[in-house]
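ESCALATION

Customer reports they have been waiting on this structure for their group meeting. Please prioritize. Original submission:
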Amino acid sequence: MSDTAGIYTLSAQPGTVVTRNAVHSVTMSPYVHDPEHWFYLYTDEGSSFMTVRDNWCPEERFLQNAIGPGNHWENNGPQVDPKIKAAAGLEPAFRDLMEP
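Update from on-call: job pushed to the front of the queue and completed.
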């Protein structure tokens, strides 16, 4: 079994804002029951009272599963401003941590 996403939320999280991320390169284990069950953004099982806004990903592959009330989704996907994508991730002082 597998629930996989670049950003995955679970349960009520009042006031949470998921914003200005670049989400890509989600990979699945070769042992999962359904290798197509993955998403860039995934709100699951009672996720509620949160805002998901201005997150870049290469395609609109999202799931809102058994969610609660009060969620607001706005401007997520490949149309997000390229400046958001460029600014996402580690702050410049820490980017060397990603070098091989």
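Sent to customer with the following note: The CA atoms of residues 25 and 85 lie 14 Å apart.
Escalation resolved.
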